[in-house]
Structure formats: C-alpha cells, structure tokens
Fold:
Amino acid sequence: MSSIQINSVTKRFGDFTAVDDLSLDIQEGEFVALLGPSGCGKTTTMNMIAGLEDTSEGSILFDGQDLSKTRIQDRNIGFVFQNYAIFTHLSVYKNLSYGLEVKKISKSEVDRRVRAMADRMSITHRLDQPASSLSVNEMQKLAIGRSAIVEPRIFLLDEPLSNLDAGFRAYMRAELKVLQHEFGQTMIYVTHDQIEAMSLADKIAIIDQGKLMQYGSPLDIYNSPDNRFVANFIGSPRMNLIDGEIREETSQLKLMVRGGAEIPLQGQVKSDFTSDGRVHSGSFGIRPQDIYFGDKRSTKDIEMHGTVEVLERVGPKRIVHLQVLETSFIAFDDQDQLKLGDEVPFFMPPDKSMAFDVVSGRRLGVV
Amino acid sequence: MTDTTKQPANARIEPSKQGYWAGVARDGNKMGFWFVLPTLLLLLFIVIFPLLMQLYLSVTWWTPLEGIPWYRAWEVFSWGENYWFQLTDPRVWGALWRTILIMIIAVPAQFFLGMALAYLFMDNFPGRKVFYSIMLTPMMIVPAVVGLMFFLLFQGTGPVNAHLGLPSTFSWLTDVNRAMISVIIADVWQWTPLMFLILLAGMLGVPSDQLLAARLLGGSNWQNFLKIILPRMKAVIIIALVLRAVECFKIFDLIFIMTKGGPGVQTETISLFLYKQTFGEFEWSYVAAIGLTILFVLSLIAAKGLAYMAKKNG
Structure:
C-alpha cells in the first residue's frame, strides 16, 4: 500500500503531447478514477504510473520514492489489463500462482494463498481447468485475483469492466468496491464511463487532451465543476450549457443568447469580469433536474418561458426539451404535467446555476 | 411462378428418361473418378513405378555396366543379399553415423542461436529492420555457393587462418577432425537464419500483454521466457526442429563442394555415400537397397512420432 505523487508529468510521443503537466496526489488507500473521453491520455498516465512508459518530464513518487529506475518486475504493481491478459496456456491455478512462484515462495504457502484467493473470487471449482475455458466474467475475476494475490503496493485497473455484459458490470462494480475495502489498497482506475467513476471512486481525476481538468470527490465534481468541460462531461442527461454574450444592462448582468433569449445572471459571475467594458462570451449552465415547473419557489429564481418540443420517457420521469426562441433547455418533467406544444413557465434557482467563460472554459465566480 | 409450385424441381431430371450421362452427372463418384483418373495415373507413374523399379533392382546384382537392360535384371537375382550386405558394410554405418553427428550438433546449434537471436529481435531497437534483412541473407544463398564460400574461407592461405593468425599449413578441410567442424560451421551459418525466422514468427505470436502481465507479476525475463514464451511456442519449435532435422539428414551440396566427403571418408554423409556408390561404383542395385531401407526406417520413425504427438495432444 502506497501513496502516489504525480508531479507535473508530461509525456510526448514525437510532436504529440499525450499528457501535459499533470499533477495528482493520491493518498494511501484511496480509490482514484482517471476519467476522460477516449484518447485523453488517461491510459498513458496509468502506464507511466506502472512504469510501462517513461515520463518525458516530471516525476512519479511512491511513498516519496522515485521508482523510475526500478525494473517493472521489481515494482510490485498490480495491473489489470482491459483484455485481462490471462495466461491462456496455463490452468486457472497456475495463473493465480504465477506471481508467487516467481518469487520462490514455498509450495505449501503458494497453495494456501491460491486457494484462499480462488475462494475469495469464487472460482475454486475452476482451479484445475485451463484458463482458456473461462467465461469473460470469470476471466475478469481471475485477472483481479492474479494481481491481488501478490499484495501489490498499488492496484491499477485499465477499463476492467468495459468487456462485460451490462448485468455483470453492475455486479462487478459492487464487487470491486467490496474488494477495495477488503484489501485497503490504493487503487487507480481508468475509465471513460462516468457512472463507474462516480460509483466506485473516492476521488475522480477528469482528464481532457492530456490536461487535468478537475480532481476531487465525485460529489464535488458533480456539484461544482471547475470548468465548462467538466460541467459538460459529467452528468446524464448533460448539463444545459447555453452560450451567449454577457452584458451589463441597468446594473444587471445578462446572458444574451443568439435568437434573442435573455438569461439574467445573479452572482454566477463576479462583476469584475465585465468591468473592462468589453463584450465577453459566456456560458450559462444548469443541470436538467434543477429546472422546475409550477409555482415559483423563491423570488430570486430565474423565470423563463419555453415551448415543449420533445418529451422522452425515462422510467417514471420524462425528459422535456424546452424551446426558448432559438435556444433549447432540457429538464425533467416528473409529474407528467406537460403536453407537447405547451408554452410553459419554468424556473431556475440561481444557486444551482453557474456560468463559464467560453474562451478559457473556466468557471466565472463561485455561487 | 405457378409452374414451379405445382411441379417439384427435381422431377424434371428423371435419370431413366435422360439417358446415361445424366446418370453419371448425378452420380458424383463416377464422374469424379473419370476426372481424377489422369492425375491418378500420372501419380502412379511418378511415385509407384520408380519405387517398384527400385524394389526390383534392390534384390538383384544389376549394374548398368554389364549391358543387361534393367528389366532383365532378374537374370542376376540376388535374393536379399544387398540388404544383408548393407547391414555389415562399415561405410554405410560410418556415413549414417556422420550424418547423425552433423544433425545432432548443427540442428541444436541452429536452434539455440536462432532462439537467442529471435529473443533479441523481440525488442524494437534502432535498425531492427536492416539487421533483420541482413540476418536472413545466408539462407537465401544457394547451398553450393555457400559451400564454395566456406571452401575459400577455410583454405590454408584463406581469411580464416589469416584472421586467427594461424600458419597456412594449418588445414581445415583436409584435416581429419577439423573438416567435420568446418562443414558444421558452414551449415550452422547457412541455416540459423531459417530457424531464427520461424522462431521469431512464433515468438511474436506470444501476446505482448501477457508478457507484460508476467513482468508486472514479478517474473524475471528468464522466468517469463520459460513459463510464458516457450510453452506458447511449442508447436512452432517442433515444426522448426523437424524441418531442419529432415533437411540436415539430406545434406549434400555443402559437403560436396567443400570436401567431397574427405579427407578419406571423414565427412561422408549418407547422401554423399549414395552419390559415390551411384556414379563412382555404379552399384545401382546396392544403392536401391540402401535407399529403400532408409525410406522404410524414416517412415517408421515419422509414423511413430506422429502417433506419439497425436496421443499427447489428446
């Protein structure tokens, strides 16, 4: 078990910068998810932690110790590959025992630990069978068990659930959480699935184009995204992000949206943003579930009127697309009260909404 | 449309109404037989006839020198004396032993060198492609030319002696022991690349993520080689070894150019011995007997080996 400090690590492949000045501080026993779209550099980051790739710049410290000169086989890092990399020519038993046998541990001890791990992963009945005969779900368990049995200092998982069927993925998600508790392991988990990251991780590092966009607890990231990318990336359905120009009219900040819609801003933007007198492109953001219908709950709430364009049923709720001139908002209609074509008022609490600078993507002020 | 629904399609080809050829066309076996017959006859002529002729000659004393046409060889019928004679002929046993000696030294040498080289080429070092092409050139060269190359290299006044600082009286190809060594060196030089090529293909077939996983689990390179790479290459290794062993048993051109089997019979292999018997002594019936015996023994070994492998693979 180790803590990991990633200090301004950069990785270049020729002209392409895969990871750009990325710093992360991972505490002992923490479960951290590296989350981002495909090709954002999260797997490269993981490979650098494992030592499969060198860093171009910066350092990675394990308990304050630089392992960049240590050979891969001596690093004691557990790694679960996306396709599991099971030794298909060996039996399940031999797969589990591999990491112990190469360390010249006594036969009886190896046997004891293999059986304990097989029992833990409930694959005991498969021990003597060839690993190639396992189902994908069992291979997944074997891959985790094989890495866990050597008690690695950290555990790296590269999209381990992406090959599983939906039902087993949900089961394995819960199982991973239990395992992490049991092992008390520092775990780093690469995924592009925000649900996995949200449900598993203590902390999420969101990466885009090699840059760290935000690092924090799932709830933090969800409730107060640092920038437009995170706001847009996290949450399903996505946050409403309405682009326009921020203007000050009669000491009231407004977002003027193309097509004529106006959204009054109350505190989402610090006033110094517009004090230079120039026109700024801004983005107004609010999550669909924070938009409500019916009676206005607070006088501060932003009131707008929109036409119901689309209604999609998602379980007990309906997703409603509201057209305001040329702009579309997405909200939830949880009481089945709306009809297609209705022109309805809807309300947005200012403390649930946020604004971003379109150019830099950074969040404007904190509400 | 209505026609086809009322009348089944097969009702139209009634053999009795359509005559013999329709019957043949419907009977796949008969038609197939006629098509295959020319090839079968050709095969019989190419394979079976020479074999029978060889068998026939091998039980006579026939030689082309006496003016009797081969089909009248029964006039000098010898029963099985050729077969008996070869078993007691020291030159046959000597040649067989030398062939096997070359095989058991050269083939493992090629195997280990090829394996080591293949392992080196698993890494993506700069210039890998160039070295790869250079590595493969020896096996592209005609064996007779390789023979000539090494014939020149191992001359008393040749480059080998010059480089090793040996006097020109130090002979390789005419020395009782060193002639064999020279031949083996030449064979290893020429055929290590083939071994390397086959083994590298097999080694690159080992999934790289499994190798990586093995390293991450703490296995040293040597342990991972033994436990992951080697077992996964088993089939390729068997193919490479069998291929080279069979080829090595037939070795001829290299030795013919380098030493002609000499000095004396020091580098005389089975192929060279048969060649000398054929065109030196003209004892064709004797050669036929030896050739058949070798064919029989090798077939037996091959059959046993195949049966063993089939059994092992379940």
Summary: Confidence is low (pLDDT under 50) at residues 1-13 of chain B. The CA atoms of residues 270 and 294 of chain B lie 9 Å apart. The interface with chain A takes residues 207, 209-210, 212-221, 223, 227-228, 231-232 of chain B (CB under 8 Å).
